[in-house]
Amino acid sequence: MAGPAALSETDSGSAGLAVSLRGVTKVYDRGVSALGPFDLDVCKGEFVSLLGPSGCGKSTALRLIARLSAPTSGTVRVSRPAVEVSGGHSIGFVFQEPTLMPWTSVRENVRLPLKIAHVAAADANARIDRALAQMGLAEFADAYPRELSGGMKMRVSLARALVTDPDILLMDEPFAALDEITRFRLNNDLLALWRNLRKTVIFVTHSVFESVYLSQRVVVMTSRPGRLSAEIQIDAPEPRGEEFRTSAEYAGYCRKVSNALIPSYAGQPGA
């Protein structure tokens, strides 16, 4: 029988960890075991990618960290900010689809989490302006989602996640549906944003190339139920750019991560 599950917040000084999962499992109502037991530590300010086969529990792990779902067993701990800010959240979540409200403007889409938190209008407007500027959207504040490209819609989704100034940013394959050129550009912008703001980022992707380019550490997961298979530290110098993307060092890391993935696909259909 699985042990009791626990969700908790820790103070900001707990060993420099932003997120800690211990023995976490997730079993759905129909008996499908989606995750675990899974252990993961993510340090404050770290950029970590979760990589593994479809259905291995990557997105499930994000949802558990965000408290959108509860673990069946194990412990999920998330550090809380040292200073509580009105309307702030410790976690921002960017989904695979932008999920924008089509009937209202970019500005009002970004305002939504502040509106839910009842943040005063003057404070909210300043935060919205800052988030739009961070994502290169200042000129599109009054545009509607139907007028935006896929990449611009994802920028709005990112701005909405950043407007509460979260300490932790969870990203669930946000660029998977974009063309390669747009994806490269957003990868670069995300890295610049992380470099400037030093948020903790946990990024789910199916792309070996994207995981190596973005991350300080790639966590490879097994097929379902997802468990830790391998961890690869990406010790490439910062700042990263096109020189790194076309380097022998980058290709070497991609080979290393690809080789670590091979056991995860063993026994799967088509493997």
Q: How many angstroms separate the termini?
A: 32 Å
What string gives the helices and strands in order? EEEEHEEHHHEHEHEEHH
Total strands = 10
Beta-strand proportion? 15-25%
Helix content: 25-40%
Radius of gyration using CA atoms only? 19 Å
CATH class of one domain: Alpha Beta
What layout of secondary structure does this protein have?
Layout: E1 5-10, E2 17-27, E3 33-43, E4 47-51, H1 58-65, E5 73-79, E6 91-94, H2 106-116, H3 121-134, H4 150-162, E7 168-172, H5 180-197, E8 200-205, H6 208-214, E9 217-221, E10 228-233, H7 242-245, H8 248-265
Parallel strand pairs: 1-5, 4-8, 4-9, 6-7, 7-8
Antiparallel strand pairs: 2-3, 2-5, 9-10
Helix pairs in contact: 2-3, 2-4, 3-4, 6-8
Structure explained in plain terms:
By secondary structure, this protein is an alpha/beta fold. It has a domain at about 45-55 and about 85-220 and about 230-265: P-loop containing nucleotide triphosphate hydrolases (Rossmann fold), CATH 3.40.50.300. Helix content is about 35%, strand content about 25%. Strand 9 and strand 10 (about 230-235) form a beta hairpin. Helix 2 (about 105-115) runs parallel beside helix 4 (about 150-160) and helix 6 crosses helix 8 (about 250-265). The radius of gyration is 19 Å and the shape is globular. The model has no long low-confidence stretch (mean pLDDT about 90).
Short description:
With 271 residues, the chain is of the alpha/beta class. The chain is 34% helix and 24% strand. The protein has a domain at 45-56 and 85-219 and 228-265: 3-Layer(aba) Sandwich (Rossmann fold).
